[in-house]
């Protein structure tokens, strides 16, 4: 008799374990391991009948299938989607409650007219959605509402109505009768999403799934959900602020990490035409602890204000708090300031904040963080007409960064008179860049850069 081998498979990330554990060793989620018994021994199953070899196509000979994009008409949304919604694609829209997911989808639905849009809502009643549409002053004759949470009924409705776009608000509320677990569980979310995505590909409609975010900031539900869809858009920014940033975390049909900037107004989300102006709008140039970063987000250069507050600590362990910037990277910058520049950081609480709720990930942000902290520590405001960018090495050197020319152009465009960046980035500048009305200051070390900024 064949021995039965027991395996435990994580329903969240798919990792396989030989023994049961309360917590998945791979994705660290609790209680997601499910027992799977496999026949161990020679396979006795019959050969599967009726299998045919797949038709292969030569890369060059095959005629490219004509995919077409549908422009949403909302410029910032088209930008993050990579030019518009792709036919038969599935997007996942994630964000904290109240950040504007339903609002954006409703605005999108109205823009797609006359294409038919089906809005499946398990969160709000048709009346609530109607009320919101009135507030947004939308006359979406093409929009059809269905307060439905049963997956089978949803699929049936789609089959009958033949919409061009289906919005599911939210995927956590949908459940299938095929599974015993309750709505919102990992199995339900994964299976329901899989069936909806399959239907979208087969019946050729666009699918937008709205997903909730956990306290830690990641999309609730299985990690695999992000792998299943073509595009993941995530709302950033704080719910209590008026500004909203939508970032493409994944995009099979366009660039990733592209951002769209919106402002939540009385009548919905409005595009912010010049995001740089917004990110540096509330700046106080006379206060120490501020700097302006020339950042690259996706395909766009942006100027962003970085703030640091440095105060003598009352604790034995000084506090290090950062919003929008990696805390470990901030600790390294503090260590470089202390060791290489002799600026004492021990004994000081350091708080760093990026304006507008933006999250900085590129190494080129190092210099602006260091400049803001150094300016706060030394109590000297930096030169108000300077922007900076650059990666800091452990020896206190400035390392080359990407896309320096676009950063320089953006700084000049917003009227800054000086840009401080790594010397390596100033070697092969195009003549047109050199002619811009600002001083390009190439620095080899962090010390040189701080000097150039008057800190
Ligand atoms: P909503 O789209 O319901 O958020 P989500 O679906 O992500 O939970 O947005 C709700 C918030 O937006 C709510 O706090 C009210 C605010 N809002 C406006 O300020 N103006 C508007 O025109 C609308 C429709 C909402
Ligand atoms: Mg909502």
UniProtKB/TrEMBL annotation:
GO terms for molecular function: ATP binding; ATP-dependent DNA damage sensor activity; damaged DNA binding; hydrolase activity; zinc ion binding. ATP binds at residues 95-102. InterPro entries: AAA+_ATPase, DNA_repair_RadA, P-loop_NTPase, RecA_ATP-bd, Ribosomal_Su5_D2-typ_SF, Ribsml_uS5_D2-typ_fold_subgr, Rubredoxin_2. One of its GO terms (cellular component) is cytosol. The keyword Metal-binding applies. GO terms for biological process: recombinational repair. The keyword DNA repair applies. Residues 66-213 form the RecA family profile domain. A motif (RadA KNRFG motif) lies at residues 250-254. Keywords: ATP-binding, DNA damage, DNA repair, DNA-binding, Hydrolase, Metal-binding, Nucleotide-binding, Stress response, Zinc, Zinc-finger. Gene3D superfamilies: 3.30.230.10, P-loop containing nucleotide triphosphate hydrolases. HAMAP family: RadA_bact (MF_01498). Belongs to the RecA family. RadA subfamily. DNA-dependent ATPase involved in processing of recombination intermediates, plays a role in repairing DNA breaks. Stimulates the branch migration of RecA-mediated strand transfer reactions, allowing the 3' invading strand to extend heteroduplex DNA faster. Binds ssDNA in the presence of ADP but not other nucleotides, has ATPase activity that is stimulated by ssDNA and various branched DNA structures, but inhibited by SSB. Does not have RecA's homology-searching function. Plays a role in repairing double-strand DNA breaks, probably involving stabilizing or processing branched DNA or blocked replication forks. This is DNA repair protein RadA. The gene is radA.
């Amino acid at each position: 008799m064949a021995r039965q081998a027991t395996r435990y498979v994580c329903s969240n990330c798919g990792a396989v374990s030989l023994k049961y554990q309360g917590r998945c060793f791979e994705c660290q989620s609790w209680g997601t391991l499910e027992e799977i018994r496999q026949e161990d021994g020679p396979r006795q199953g019959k050969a599967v009948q009726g299998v045919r070899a797949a038709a292969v196509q030569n890369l060059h000979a095959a005629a490219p299938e004509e995919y077409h994009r549908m422009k949403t008409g909302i410029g910032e949304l088209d930008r993050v989607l990579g030019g518009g919604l792709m036919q038969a694609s599935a997007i996942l829209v994630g964000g904290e409650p109240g950040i504007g997911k339903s609002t954006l989808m409703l605005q999108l639905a109205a823009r797609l007219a006359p294409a038919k849009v089906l809005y499946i809502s398990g969160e709000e009643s048709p009346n609530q959605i109607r009320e919101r549409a009135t507030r947004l002053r939308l006359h979406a004759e093409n929009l059809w509402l269905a307060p439905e949470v049963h997956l089978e009924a949803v699929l049936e409705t789609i089959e009958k109505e033949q919409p061009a776009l289906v919005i599911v608000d939210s995927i956590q509320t949908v459940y299938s009768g095929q599974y015993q677990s309750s709505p919102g569980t990992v199995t339900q979310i994964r299976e329901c999403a899989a069936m909806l995505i399959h239907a979208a590909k087969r019946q050729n409609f666009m699918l937008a799934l709205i997903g909730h975010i956990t306290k830690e900031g990641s999309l609730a539900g299985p990690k695999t959900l992000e792998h299943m869809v073509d595009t993941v858009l995530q709302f950033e920014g704080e719910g209590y602020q008026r500004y909203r940033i939508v970032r493409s975390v994944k995009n099979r049909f366009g660039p990733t990490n592209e951002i769209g900037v919106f402002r939540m107004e009385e009548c919905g989300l409005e595009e912010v035409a010049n995001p740089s102006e917004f990110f540096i709008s509330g700046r106080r140039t006379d206060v120490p602890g501020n700097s302006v970063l020339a950042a690259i987000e996706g395909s766009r250069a942006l100027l962003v204000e970085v703030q640091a507050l440095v105060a003598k600590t009352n604790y034995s362990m000084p506090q290090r708090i950062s919003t929008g910037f990696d805390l470990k990277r901030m600790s390294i910058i503090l260590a470089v300031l202390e060791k290489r520049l002799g600026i004492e950081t021990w004994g000081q609480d350091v708080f760093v904040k990026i304006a507008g709720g933006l999250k900085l990930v590129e190494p080129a942000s190092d210099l602006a963080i260091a400049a803001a902290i150094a300016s706060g520590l030394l109590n000297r405001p930096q030169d108000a007409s300077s922007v900076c960018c650059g990666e800091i090495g452990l020896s206190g050197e400035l390392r080359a960064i990407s896309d320096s020319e676009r950063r320089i152009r953006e700084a000049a465009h917003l009227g800054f008179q000086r840009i401080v960046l790594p010397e390596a980035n100033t070697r092969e500048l195009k003549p047109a860049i050199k002619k811009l009305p600002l001083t390009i200051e190439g620095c080899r070390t962090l010390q040189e850069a701080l000097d150039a900024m008057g800190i």
